[in-house]
């Protein structure tokens, strides 16, 4: 069996990228971002991209790099805050946006990975989210029909992988990454650590290796925090 482990992001993406493709990119805010694969896509110069991701990074980091480089034509997202460039491009008409409720976005991606073309949800009924979509009544309640989301490529970031591609995520990085790994025609995972086959307890596997085509060990993870909030220090007791 050919090895799934590649030396670097560029080689892992070789032969995969093309203009006009759809890319699923994991992450929740900046947590769980594929920090090594995104710059490699930027450097490859592919354009006219549709990117499916919870958000589009933050100023100077994450998917913002592709946005700033003029490579993204359309975003399918659920959150568009913390990114002034996104706002500017959308309001000027240079960027298309398909905005989804967050749970709907996750379920559309999960449906794409599971081979389910459509499903119904109450979320968004009676709002702009439901405009142009079929609405049906079940048990006296209206539900809007949503369709699956799939991509030509899924890029995800995990904590650990073994050579078979079994993935383990940590904490908030276990957000959109697992469902996106199932919905890409090709899935490339970057990980903090590659361990020997058998080192991951099968009960601890979050994404089975059957969904993962290529793996790289990432480097120099910044793991930035968009907004750092700290608890106010208590006032010192008076003497």
Characterize the structure shown.
Pfam families: CoA_trans. With 239 residues, this protein is an alpha/beta fold. It has a single domain (9-120, 148-217), classed as Glutaconate Coenzyme A-transferase (3-Layer(aba) Sandwich). The protein is built from 6 helices and 11 strands. It has helices at residues 9-12, 37-44, 64-68, 84-91, 102-114, 177-183; strands at residues 22-25, 49-52, 72-77, 96-99, 118-121, 135-138, 141-147, 151-161, 167-168, 184-194, 214-217. Strands 1, 2, 3, 4, 8, 9, 10 and 11 form an 8-stranded mixed beta sheet that branches. A 3-stranded antiparallel beta sheet has the order 5-7-6. The model has no long low-confidence stretch (mean pLDDT 94).
Question: What order do the helices and strands come in, and which of them pair?
Answer:
Layout: H1 9-12, E1 22-25, H2 37-44, E2 49-52, H3 64-68, E3 72-77, H4 84-91, E4 96-99, H5 102-114, E5 118-121, E6 135-138, E7 141-147, E8 151-161, E9 167-168, H6 177-183, E10 184-194, E11 214-217
Parallel strand pairs: 1-2, 1-8, 2-3, 3-4, 8-10, 10-11
Antiparallel strand pairs: 5-7, 6-7, 8-9
Helix pairs in contact: 5-6
Describe what is shown at a glance.
The chain is of the alpha/beta class. The chain has 6 helices and 11 strands.
Quickly count the domains: 1
Order of H and E elements = HEHEHEHEHEEEEEHEE
Percentage of residues assigned to helices: 10-25%
The CATH homology group name: Glutaconate Coenzyme A-transferase
CATH architecture: 3-Layer(aba) Sandwich
Write down the CATH topology. Answer: Glutaconate Coenzyme A-transferase
Average pLDDT works out at: 94
**Alpha-beta content class:** alpha/beta
Rg for CA atoms: 19 Å
Morphology call: globular
Query: Helical stretch count?
Result: 6
**Strand fraction:** 25-35%
CATH top-level class: Alpha Beta
* N-end to C-end Cα span: 73 Å
Largest sheet: 8 strands, mixed
Q: Would you count the extended β strands for me?
A: 11
List unreliable stretches of 5+ residues: none
InterPro entries: 3-oxoacid_CoA-transf_A, CoA_trans_fam_I, NagB/RpiA_transferase-like
GO molecular function: CoA-transferase activity
Organism: Sphingomonas turrisvirgatae
Protein name: Succinyl-CoA--3-ketoacid-CoA transferase
């Amino acid at each position: 069996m050919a090895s799934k482990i590649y030396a670097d992001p560029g080689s892992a993406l070789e032969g995969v990228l093309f203009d006009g493709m759809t890319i699923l990119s994991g992450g929740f805010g900046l947590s769980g971002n594929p920090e090594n694969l995104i710059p490699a896509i930027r450097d490859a110069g592919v354009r006219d991209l549709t990117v499916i991701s919870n958000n589009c990074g933050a100023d100077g980091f994450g998917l913002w790099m592709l946005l700033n480089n003029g490579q993204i034509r359309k975003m399918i997202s659920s959150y568009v805050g913390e990114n002034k460039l996104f706002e500017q491009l959308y309001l000027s008409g240079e960027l298309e946006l398909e905005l989804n409720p967050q749970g709907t976005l996750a379920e559309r991606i999960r449906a794409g990975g599971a081979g389910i073309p459509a499903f119904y949800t109450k979320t968004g009924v009676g709002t702009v989210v439901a405009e142009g979509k079929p609405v049906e009544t079940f048990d006296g309640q209206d539900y809007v029909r949503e369709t699956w989301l799939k991509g030509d490529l899924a890029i995800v970031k995990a904590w650990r992988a073994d050579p078979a591609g079994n993935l383990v995520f940590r904490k908030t990085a276990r957000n959109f990454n697992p469902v996106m790994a199932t919905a890409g025609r090709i899935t490339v995972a970057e990980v903090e650590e590659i361990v020997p086959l058998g080192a991951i307890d099968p009960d601890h596997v979050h994404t089975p290796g059957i969904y993962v085509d290529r793996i790289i060990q990432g480097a120099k993870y910044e793991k930035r925090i968009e907004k750092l909030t700290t608890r106010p220090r208590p006032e010192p007791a008076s003497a």
